[in-house]
Design brief:
With about 425 residues, the protein is an alpha/beta fold. Helices cover about 50% and strands about 10% of the residues. The chain contains 24 helices and nine strands. The longest helix has 17 residues. It starts with 12 loop residues before the first helix and ends in a 5-residue tail after the last helix.
Length: about 425
């Protein structure tokens, strides 16, 4: 793609980096059929190719942010376009800085600002999230007069918030540890389903790995980064670089969105004194499935009866981190499991952080489509590796009479080890 930046523009490191990415795009269109918003809306401006042109013209000053931003806001950031791109366009490294630029230079409508403030302010503070969730049933009384986004936030909550589970600082196997890792504890996940962290720890310890939970870790910053709040994201990143600075063999993430953001710290901290530290840290970050495969995990005992399982790819694992085989190999290691692939498995479920709240119509359509594809496969269990996807899938599968269980990979594997996956 030809760009028209002046020499003065290219003295700006941000624009120089954008120019390098933009020039890789050859307008081939391979990204179009993989893009959820193009599949849903059918407009060129709602494709990665179209958005790249819009961002280019905005960076060059020939198009205003007000004109380009509505189309950029409709991007899920699923990064399916990167997987399908033969030219290696780093779309994420264009999208994140562009959204930060938009956040600095524009003021969203009051309603949009309120819901973004509510979502970011609550979901990333577990104590506040837990407290407010306990009183969500009171708000449901006023469902008829509440905005659509508020109603959806209430519907996505489980009927009962699980009891809080305190995590110790260290969990050790009975024998000599074969490795020592740090676990990213997460924010909303610990409120909505604390069993995920418990199962992750149990699975790692069973496989001879010592697990530490750094006490001073913070939010990974994913929701803020995707919302254009670069300043707060960098504060979170610096906090986590300090928290995970001790000598670990790996940093383990059990949420695809968090793991993806942690691996993006080099671009988030690009041009700062901590860029090199961020690069070293990001190389240490592993998704749970990848790490288990790396250490040659212990296969669970066979199930007592055959089980059909659909593995639903979280976009920020399949596309952002390039992880496809590892979770499938783990499930296939359980004798008695028939792993079933679904049509359009690489298409986003519509959760995408807080996208299903900010863009409820598109998020709902994608969620219903994904649920329909899953139900066609008639699984007993659906497994995923991201709390946002799990929440979205449960919400859209719930109306079906044949609604399957939806489990996190760590929970499914832990149940398999205990012989209760099929109970």
């Amino acid at each position: 793609m030809q760009t028209n930046f002046s020499l003065k523009d290219l003295n700006d490191p941000e624009l120089q980096h954008a120019d390098d990415i933009l020039r890789k795009c050859v307008h081939c269109g391979f990204c179009l059929p993989t893009c959820p918003t193009y599949d849903t809306l059918g407009q060129e401006t709602d494709t990665p190719r179209g958005r790249i042109i819009l961002m280019k013209e905005t960076f060059e000053g020939t198009l205003s942010l007000d004109e380009s931003l509505p189309y950029i806001d409709r991007c899920l950031g699923c990064l399916a376009c990167e997987t399908s791109c033969p030219s290696g366009v780093e779309y994420r490294n264009l999208l994140g800085p562009f959204r930060e630029k938009a956040s600095r230079e524009t003021t969203p409508p009051t309603k949009a600002r309120f819901f973004r403030w509510l979502a970011l302010g609550v979901l990333t503070h577990p104590s506040l999230f837990r407290f407010l969730s306990k009183f969500a049933f009171l708000a449901k009384v006023f469902r008829g007069i509440l905005p659509k986004q508020m109603c959806l936030m209430l519907e996505l909550l489980p009927k009962k918030i699980p009891r809080a589970v305190g995590l110790s600082e260290i969990y050790s196997p009975s024998g000599k540890p074969r490795a020592r890792v740090a676990l990213v504890a997460g924010c909303a996940q610990g409120v909505l389903e604390p069993e995920i962290n418990i199962s992750t720890i149990s699975v790692l310890v069973r496989n001879g790995v010592e697990v530490l939970i750094p006490r001073n870790q913070g939010c990974c910053g994913a929701l803020h980064w995707h919302s254009g709040d670069g300043e707060r994201t960098r504060r979170f990143a610096l906090q986590n670089l300090r928290a995970f600075s001790k000598g670990f063999d790996a940093v383990i993430s059990n949420a695809a969105g968090c793991g993806s953001c942690l691996q993006e710290y080099p671009i988030i901290l690009k041009g700062t004194k901590k860029e090199k530290v961020a690069i070293r840290f990001s190389n240490q970050v592993h998704d749970l499935s990848c790490y288990l495969e790396k250490i040659d995990f212990q296969a669970p005992p066979p199930t007592q009866k055959p089980l059909r399982i659909v593995y639903q790819d979280a976009c920020h694992l399949r596309h952002a981190q390039g992880v496809f085989d590892a979770p499938r190999k783990i499930l296939q290691a359980i004798k008695g499991v028939d792993l079933v692939e679904i049509e359009d498995a690489d298409m986003c479920c519509g959760s995408a952080g807080i996208y299903n709240i900010e863009q409820p119509d598109i998020g709902d359509e994608l969620g219903r489509r994904k649920a329909a594809k899953i139900l066609e496969a008639k699984p007993d269990i659906v497994v995923s590796a991201n709390i946002g996807c799990i929440t979205q899938l449960r919400h859209h599968l719930k109306p079906s009479p044949s609604c399957p269980k939806v489990l996190h990979l760590a929970v499914a594997l832990n149940l398999a080890y205990s012989g209760t996956l099929d109970s």
